[in-house]
Amino acid sequence: MRHAFVLCCSIALFGSVGTASAQAWTKSKWGPNDEIGAANYMTPELVLKAAGLIKTGKTYALGIETNSKTPAFPPRTFKVLVLQPGQAGGSGLGPNKTTYNDDIIEGWVGIGSQIDGLGHIGVDWTYYNGLKSGDFAAADGLKKLGVEKIPPLVTRGVLLDMAAYYNTDIVKEGTAFNVKEIEDVAKKQGVEIRQGDVVIFHTGWLSLIGKDDKRYSTGEPGVGVEGAKYLTSKGVVAVGADTWAVEAIPFESKNVFEVHQILLPMNGTYILENMDTAELAKDKAYEFMFVLGQPRFRGGVQSMINPIAIR
Prior knowledge:
nine-stranded mixed beta sheet; about 20% strand; Glucose Oxidase, domain 1; alpha/beta; disordered N terminus; globular; two-stranded antiparallel sheet
């Protein structure tokens, strides 16, 4: 989300965070130099267990196609330019006439399927592990918490099919998934949320793209405040959904993107937005191996991604 919008409001909307509690969340349990947050929960043992979930070899691409018409949080835009450098007049390179196309991306990184890094959201200019914006955020890239620091995310993935839970194709905007809803769905599906997991919600919301872009981009169902606290208490690495912000909009209160604040700066838990969960839900693939190696843009706040689920 836009930093200016979120952060200028944070004093008013997060006034309930007292000095003591704020002091607690600004200190990472992994030490003062930690920059990867909940990714610390992943271990070689968890990776091996996740690999053991592969039974059929079927793979699922969780990233969506991104183009100039992909709806996004304003003012984000995106386009691709294709050029043929050094080939003016139709001539190729060398006597063998090698020709090639190159491309340039013009646009915002936070569009389409993406991972929000720990330098994305703060509370009153304070970010993960107590880092102050003025000490690490610069126009030429973040000096700490950049997405290049995120290690490969390879772990157990869990899909929670909220559309099936509510017996609908598309869950209504503003619907918040809190402790009861999360526990009920997990029990119904026969899955347990564990430390080190990536938890992804299916709501059907992504199916609105190209059909009702206005509705898609002005609200959504998603994780509620208590749901976010519950998931972080479980020690999950990342929380994702087939929505553009992962959290319920309209918000549950006057607080703006509070779930983002709970996940990113307060717990170092990554956010995966616009995940294509339709095929997973169709196959009732509620447990799988999750694999993500995001582009390592030095100093980047976010990264476009195409994670893979394998079962």
